[in-house]
Amino acid sequence: MRVDGPVALTIAGSDSSGGAGIQADLKTFAAHGCYGTSVITALTAQNTVGVQGVHACPPEFVAKQITSVLDDLDVRAIKTGMLYDAETVKAVAGLLKTRFSSELSSPLPLVCDPVCVSTSGHSLLHEDAIEVLISQLFPLSTLITPNKSEAELLLSHFGDSTPIHDLEAMLSSAQKLLSLGPKAVLLKGGHHSITMPDIVRIRQKNGCPKIIKHDLPSDNMEILLVGAPNYDDIELVVDVLYQIDGSLTLFVRPWIQSTSTHGTGCTLSSAITSELAKGIPLEQAVDNATMYTYHGIQSATPMGRGYGPLNHFHRFTTILIPQPTPANPYPFTHMLIESNAKEWKEYVEHDFVRQLGKGTLDRAHFIHFVKSVLTNDILHPEMLIVFLRQDYHYLKYYARAYALMPQRLLAAKSTTFGQIDSCTKTISNVLHEIGNHKAFCATFGITEQDLETTNEAGATIAYGAYIIDIGLQGDSTRLMMALMACLLGYGEVGLWLKKQSTLPDTWVKLEDNPYRHWMEEYAGEMYQGAVRIGLDALEACAVADPPSAVRFKEWQAVWAKCTRLEKGFWDMAMELRG
Amino acid sequence: MRVDGPVALTIAGSDSSGGAGIQADLKTFAAHGCYGTSVITALTAQNTVGVQGVHACPPEFVAKQITSVLDDLDVRAIKTGMLYDAETVKAVAGLLKTRFSSELSSPLPLVCDPVCVSTSGHSLLHEDAIEVLISQLFPLSTLITPNKSEAELLLSHFGDSTPIHDLEAMLSSAQKLLSLGPKAVLLKGGHHSITMPDIVRIRQKNGCPKIIKHDLPSDNMEILLVGAPNYDDIELVVDVLYQIDGSLTLFVRPWIQSTSTHGTGCTLSSAITSELAKGIPLEQAVDNATMYTYHGIQSATPMGRGYGPLNHFHRFTTILIPQPTPANPYPFTHMLIESNAKEWKEYVEHDFVRQLGKGTLDRAHFIHFVKSVLTNDILHPEMLIVFLRQDYHYLKYYARAYALMPQRLLAAKSTTFGQIDSCTKTISNVLHEIGNHKAFCATFGITEQDLETTNEAGATIAYGAYIIDIGLQGDSTRLMMALMACLLGYGEVGLWLKKQSTLPDTWVKLEDNPYRHWMEEYAGEMYQGAVRIGLDALEACAVADPPSAVRFKEWQAVWAKCTRLEKGFWDMAMELRG
Fold first, then answer.
1. B52–A68 CB contact, under 8 Å
2. pTM
3. What CATH number corresponds to the domain at position B269?
4. What is one process in the GO biological process aspect for this record (chains A, B) (predicted)?
């Protein structure tokens, strides 16, 4: 997830306890994938119990902060929260008006949350600021988002002291508030007790406003409602959206019994601002934002001694695999290898491999056969022959497992034919490898007939049967882990030996090394090309559907098992089993 | 992800542009799963180009904010950033000292980032504050995190004006800084040009300090390094951690060419604070935090006209399925059903189902057979018989598909035997369903022999073969989607008919309805018990390994296809095909 745009700006107070104000706004912006900026109008010493103090910022410094942000960053939407006093409202409104009317920029979406009083009852807006708010800021606003008491306070300034006691009153109040100048009003519910019959009644009376319901019984979902309360008895929260084009929308959801409501208003308005910054139309923005806020309350754990904050990050989960960097272009494979580095090293730098590199195969040493096996300091031809014979059998299993891959890929929805093509090409590569293998064996006097009639060793069957089993289980990603452990392992062995050969005073012998062909095959262009395709496929697999910890563990288990089985294969050769 | 604890506190300045200061800290806390609180010492009007102004907050109000937070919330770690002037440093240090030495609480981890100058060169700490910082705050600090120029400034106060020009100088400076009182010093690199040979030299000279490397060539990863620069030529960043117990750790990683470095210091220190708040030991905390910051720079997109911010949320991805709520305890199934609501409704409320409910099967109407078929207003016995005969065949496919499930579950690492047990019990339930089916058919004069010899219709083969195919493809989750569409669909049909039967003036007929037994079977306790198990399994599947958009689409495709095939099954009966 890249939280580096679009940019959203909040102009509001600071809440030291982190649940409301610019802190709630920044958390909400982030949760919506927006880059958050913030202009602070006043500091509060505050916690879940109440507001212990307020320090106002000079209005000209508020303006200075706004200028710093707007002059440099491509802000796509703005919200205002606590503006504290008349001078600050004037400074903010004045600056935004100039900006909005300048020919250089078209007006930005502006959400005005007319914060007047904190949840705990502390006044957050001076009495004399209300009129300025209405006359100067509302006309610039795309949306204002008062709650019941804020709406009552705003309307009382026009001599209207009707309490907003029910849904009917909410509708008429929203309409009155709209006449104060903003392009839309979202009058928030939550302080009334409303049930579905109230909404049905309103609907009949008010020319069928649009109703958007969430988390309420839907048609044809009886199986999900067993034991649920009667539909008509569910206590509801209704938010009313009135837009300047006359459209009216009710947002309806269950009321939640919770003390985690500190900063609900800030969160909702900054969630709407985030959605507007992304270019989402107002009604949809409000719909998404109300549900985000609802889940934030629903999933919060009580915190502090009073009204605790919402859980702003309920939609987030962390990804396990880091982003690729120039220094680490294969982060997933890197993690896989690192997850069992010790066994991987034992496999890649196996004594068998070292002795291939040394070319310490001397037929004259046959006399010391038993001794050499015990001390392991010489790779005896017999060891290689055991290996070659068994590897021939193994390659058959390996090709068969690869042949299951196109089947798995074709079964998945997201597969391209290109992937299947590269996969079937890999089967051809394995056949090519078998061809090389046979030719190499012939130099040791082993015929194809010999190879075919050699009994399969336990280690061969174990490894071969395991990858076929994984293939038949049918999960394409786990089959890929099994195949890659082998493909990448031999590629690593090839490059490791090659690297060792370039070191000063290398122990690797190239001249007259009877195994040089084998070594160079795996370090060569063709095999390494296949490794490259394999690496890309592995990384793509992790990027397309980032694994959870559960799935990574499953993948890692297959990878680790194959690493062990590969090592076991070489152990077998060294011990002349088979 | 629940970001509601542990609580971390930052005491620092505000950066209006959101990339540094408490804004960077809050973003970093959130990215680490901590709940962020913030005490503001000063406001800056700032952007990526520079600092345009500073408004200091009265020291006593800084103290008041700290008190508000610590009195109410269970803070687990604190960091300080820009403290601006001597009076503020005194206020913060004095208050923390009192808190830390009170018998009620043991000292909290305190990370002091001695912010002196902004990246853009603006002074953020008064000259006279440095001495107070050293004498009063350092002794309380778990860790101080100066960069090169801050370290030079701090040491110059003791007459030491040696420039920190290389790794050697970093080590000795870190040791000197440690003697100023903190429990550990992290001296940050990034301003030097260091390569691996420098580190090897240091290591030989300084008694082998511990070295933690990241994103650098590791052993046995040659395959990942094709085309990478020579190890010894890579330009490195080294951070030096010196702890009071004498342990020395170097954190080494590649240097990144980037302009996205605004707020790097704030981000690193708050990342360390987050890790300490979670109880992670210091060295590991620093290691994690340096890599978090490194990836933050690496994955950032340029923003603004100067030094842009880091990408703080590079580890995050959003989850598709909302959290369960009391009103929506099955959010995943809810999403599935909603994703093709129209087709689901056509299936569940199919005319065939309605007519079963009406019991409008009248043998006397046989005469109107053709007409009734055309107008579809009567469910003719022939239709039911077509359905029953084909459903018998379908149930065989269904049981076979279910029989593949234990195989799939056993192949997965995370399966419990309980899951497999409940799965095999479902097969017994299907056999029971087949038994009922046969008994019900007998009441229509259809014998088992008849059922067995009935030809399978196209719709039966289509549906049956599809679920077997999905099962053989081997992905257990997609097989589950296929099986659940059928299990849940019939459960919904049963409950929907039952609900209709309770409405006033219901069209459902229970008395003398020859299909009553069939209807009641699906609404009954036994079948609904199976539905409940299915729902729980579906939800558990989405919780254990939350699907990405890619995987949800794959699952949804199987679900939608089965819904269509179910509907096709009833269409077939209505058209007397088969």
1. yes
2. 0.88
3. 3.40.1190.20
4. thiamine biosynthetic process
